[in-house]
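Usage

Read records sequentially. Each one opens with the input sequence:
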Amino acid sequence: MAFFVYILQCVDKTYYVGCTNNLEKRFIEHNTSKKGSHYTKIRRPVALKHSEEFTTLIEARRRELEITGWRRAKKENLVKSI
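and closes with the structure output:
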């Protein structure tokens, strides 16, 4: 099973970092469902700006925490590097 770390850009231009094992389903939830995080529910629509794939949940969670701790400028550089 694959795990994904992703960065969403909200309508207010803020970034949200998350982790999932089903990127497509989770993206839809963030935009339409009550299952999306509270942060993105009040900042819809969101756009997928970056994703990375990992083989274990532990690796994905570590990367999620790493990116979450970054300042905005560093996140923007990651998003633009693609």
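Summary fields computed downstream for this record:
- Residues 33 and 41 are 8 Å apart (CA to CA).
- The chain has one domain: 3-80.
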